[in-house]
Design brief:
Elements: H1 2-22, H2 24-40, H3 49-74, H4 81-84, H5 86-134, H6 151-162, E1 166-168, E2 175-177, H7 207-221, H8 223-233, H9 239-259, H10 267-279, H11 289-308, H12 313-330
Antiparallel strand pairs: 1-2
Helix pairs in contact: 1-3, 2-3, 3-5, 5-7, 7-9, 8-9, 11-12
């Protein structure tokens, strides 16, 4: 009986893999629809924080699972670092579910259980990110650690890998043509293949710059623990934790800006640094700044939009109504 069930599940999984590989655009549209439904369901489950966080977490986890299945079905042609690292996958799962874990702990064990889960999750995330920095030599850790897969680009890369004309010799770097993937003789070109560029060629050899980057990133990934420690000493609504986190963010970004001329960053690293700069705007939504300065101004802005912008009344009033819950749940200093 058990073997029959396993066989059925394996067949279903193979069929599903084949379907998502054959229909990447349709899969993306379905995932986007599920995500939109999770946003619209916020008002329906506002009184049940556990249901809200479960609905919010599921779309992200579904996208991650589909990406992993799609990659596993094509990994013989291409290896993508973000999926080869189990550390990044576990880190991504924790990032997608950390608020759900926190809400669940509060419901089951009260405030003490909530804070215990917060400390455990942030400690776990910091350790994994430090491993990525110091063991796997990752200069800029991404958030999420495993970004959603670009389906179109992935399939194009697979197709190009399947028609690859040559391979590179390890010692000399010479590109040698492959007979298996060569074009028919009548249309074959006999020019030498261009050398394959190594992504690591752009990495700087300046040891001092690398140490500064590693120090800045290590400080950044331990920021949640430093913030929690400062908050334990003072209070959640006091200024020292808020100021400490802001200083760490500014100092880290300053080091990266100073090292940008010496250390060439990849496109993914640049995008992460841009995200961090933009995330500085979230400080106006974090306590105590939000409680003392920005709350009244933001509410007044929503009131103005509701009365002056056509068809914006429903959206503005919905955001204004749900903002206190979102501010108290998502805009923590330890969130990345």
């Amino acid at each position: 009986m058990a073997s029959c069930v396993n066989s059925t599940l394996n067949n279903l999984l193979k069929s599903y893999k084949s379907w998502i590989v054959a229909n990447p655009q349709l899969l993306t549209d379905i995932e986007a629809t599920v995500r939109c439904l999770s946003y619209f369901s916020f008002g329906q489950f506002r009184d049940s924080t556990l249901a809200v966080e479960l609905i919010y977490s599921m779309p992200n986890l579904i996208v991650l699972c589909n990406d992993l299945l799609m990659y596993s079905s094509r990994r013989q042609h291409l290896r993508i670092p973000q999926f080869d690292s189990k550390i990044k996958i576990w880190l991504t799962v924790v990032e997608y579910t950390e608020t759900l874990l926190e809400v669940s702990a509060k419901k089951l064990w009260g405030p003490k259980g909530r804070w215990l889960i917060i400390v455990i999750v942030q400690l776990f995330k910091s350790i994994l990110r430090l491993l990525l920095i110091h063991v796997y030599k990752e200069r800029v850790t991404k958030s999420p650690a495993t970004p959603p897969l670009n389906r179109d680009k992935f399939n194009k890369t697979i197709d190009s890998a399947q028609v690859k004309e040559g391979f590179t010799l390890k010692r000399s770097g010479t590109v040698v043509r492959s007979v298996k993937y060569s074009a028919p003789i009548e249309i074959r070109t006999w020019k030498a293949l261009p050398p394959v560029t190594d992504e690591n060629e752009n990495l700087t050899k300046n040891q001092e710059s690398e140490r500064n980057l590693k120090l800045a990133e290590s400080l950044y990934v331990t920021k949640p623990l430093l913030h929690l420690g400062c908050m334990y000493i003072t209070s959640q609504k006091r200024w020292p934790p808020w100021i400490l986190s802001l200083i760490i963010d500014l100092a880290s970004l300053n080091v990266f800006a100073r090292c940008a001329k010496k250390a060439l960053f990849s496109k993914e690293e640049e995008e992460e640094l841009v995200r961090r700069r933009l995330s500085l705007l979230l400080y106006i939504l974090r306590s105590p700044f939000y409680d003392k300065y920005s709350r009244d101004k933001i509410n007044a802005l929503f009131d103005t939009i509701s009365t002056s912008v056509p068809l914006a009344k429903y959206l503005a009033s919905a955001v204004k109504k749900n903002l206190p819950y979102m501010q108290s749940t998502y805009f923590y200093m330890w969130s990345r």
